[in-house]
Write a structure and sequence with these properties.
By secondary structure, the chain is an alpha/beta fold. It has one domain: NAD(P)-binding Rossmann-like Domain (Rossmann fold, 3-Layer(aba) Sandwich). Helix content is 40%, strand content 18%. It has an 8-stranded mixed β-sheet with strand order 3-2-1-4-5-6-7-8, sandwiched between helices.
Length: 252
């Protein structure tokens, strides 16, 4: 059920025929874990909290640095040096006290810890910023059969893909994991390229929208598809994907 306050808060969503009160209750009863409280994690968490997703977990072991503030819109200059997840929890609860915010002030570095966190939620969002973590998140989501929504950004280009484990292509199908040393170099190179703040807002919004559509069962999700957005030229491209039967993570 929705309270009178919730009915008013979400009234513009409820007015949409494809959502209504029934859809809003679906959002309220859904839970998601967001891996990453940075550039992508900020808009994703803000929009999911604002839309009324009932329980949101955020996992990140980082602290706010000055270089974050050009794109991480939850934090302020006065937050420098503070743990991101605690600040995110405060901001999101201030935005929507109806949503339960759960935080994990840690890095995702091993499968056991990742499993213990992910298994508590209905779906997983990958808002991380390095390939090592992305592969770990993908492996764990597939192992737990949790829907996975992935956003990635670099310079002026962003990507979004969605995964239904066992049914659609997973992240490893599209970007096969390489040797550890190579993966580390890939992550370092990606971080060194930089990124625009507006791009993470756009890609984060697309990823959040993917989750909302999935919960409501409306529209077309990016399952077996990779959306690429070139913000420099305003080009959107959607590439069809296929599950790799020999994939080391989700292969049959």
């Amino acid at each position: 059920m929705l309270s009178n306050e919730e009915l008013e808060r979400y009234s513009r969503q409820i007015a949409i025929d494809k959502i209504g009160i029934e859809g809003q209750i679906k959002l309220k009863n859904f839970s998601v874990i967001i891996a990453g409280a940075g550039g992508l994690g900020n808009p994703i968490s803000l929009y999911l909290a604002a839309s009324g997703v009932g329980r949101i977990g955020i996992v990140d072991g980082d602290r706010v640095s000055l270089s974050n503030l050009g794109r991480q819109i939850i934090y302020n200059t006065s937050d420098l040096g503070k743990e991101k997840v605690f600040l995110a929890k405060e901001r999101l609860e201030s935005l929507n006290p109806n949503v339960k915010i759960e935080i994990y002030n840690t890095w995702l570095t091993d499968e056991d810890t990742t499993i213990q966190i992910f298994k508590k939620y209905n779906a997983v969002i990958d808002a991380s910023d390095n390939f090592e973590t992305r592969y770990l998140i993908n492996r764990t989501a597939v192992k737990l059969s949790k829907p996975l929504f992935t956003g990635a950004v670099g310079r002026f280009v962003g990507q979004v893909m969605s995964v239904l484990p066992g049914k659609t292509a997973c992240f490893n199908c599209v970007f096969p994991e390489k040797e550890r040393a190579v993966v580390q170099l890939m992550s370092e190179r990606n971080l060194s390229l930089g990124v625009t703040g507006t791009l993470v807002g756009i890609i984060g919004s697309v990823a959040a929208n993917e989750v909302i559509k999935y919960v409501l069962g409306i529209g077309n999700n990016l399952f077996n598809k990779l959306l690429i957005f070139d913000s420099l030229n305003n080009d959107f491209l959607i590439i069809d994907l296929e599950r790799n039967p020999e994939c080391k993570v989700c292969g049959l």
